[in-house]
Amino acid sequence: MRDPQTVNAFALPGGQVFITAALLSRLNSEAQLAGVLGHEVGHVIGRHGAEHLAKQQLGSALVNAVGIAASDRPGSGRQAAILAQAVNQMVNLKYGRDDELESDRLGFQFMTAADYNPVGIVELMKILNSARGGAGEQPEFMSTHPNPANRIEQLVTMINQEYPNGVPGRLQEGKDRFAQIVGRRL
Ligand SMILES: [Zn+2]
Question: From ligand 1's centre to the CA of 137, what distance in Å?
């Protein structure tokens, strides 16, 4: 999203993941970006957003519509309208603590399965934490956790349990490629 100020990322129930230019510009590795995508896809797989939308008056119609729109041809007016409505709902969404922890776990699995170094998600949490401070404006990631240090600690514990002998060398951070592909576009 062409928003140079709001540090945020979120996903729609249909699987589309959005990241703001402000957040992207603060990243410096593919592993960090994989951390964003993995966490947001975790919300999709866990159906957290779908459950949230279903609880509102919008009901399941919007959830289904977003699913259809995701498989629709891009550019149609109907799709754009549905997506805009869903984005409105999701952009300020506050997930519960359990949802966030599940997404952290799933995101960790996804990014390491894709051979990215999980240090990226820890760095991401620190980046998001330092980006906080605006009045009431918190990135989706940080919306429910009063103490981000606890969450970073849990991620570090997860990494140490999965890789007691250290993170294998095949898990890359992808800093050079990130700088080449993303850095020059910002
Ligand atoms: Zn989240």
Answer: 15
Please tell me the pTM assigned to this model: 0.80
In a domain, 1, yes or no: no
Dihedral sign for Cα atoms in the order 51, 98, 5, 26: negative
CA 100 to ligand 1 centroid distance, Å:
5
Specify if 3 maps to a domain: no
Query: Which is it for the CA torsion 32, 37, 43, 46, positive or negative?
Result: negative
Q: How far is the CA of 124 from the centre of ligand 1 (A)?
A: 12
How many domains does the chain fold into? 1
Domain assignment of residue 140, yes or no: yes
Residues whose Cβ atom is located within 5 A of ion ligand 1: 100, 103
pLDDT for 140 beyond 80: no
**CA 15 to ligand 1 centroid distance, Å:** 14
Segment 75-112, tens digit of pLDDT? 566 666 766 777 776 666 778 788 888 899 999 999 99
Q: Is position 152 within any domain?
A: yes
Q: Using one digit for the tens of pLDDT, what is the confidence trace for 65-76?
A: 555 555 556 556
**Residue 110 DSSP one-character state:** H
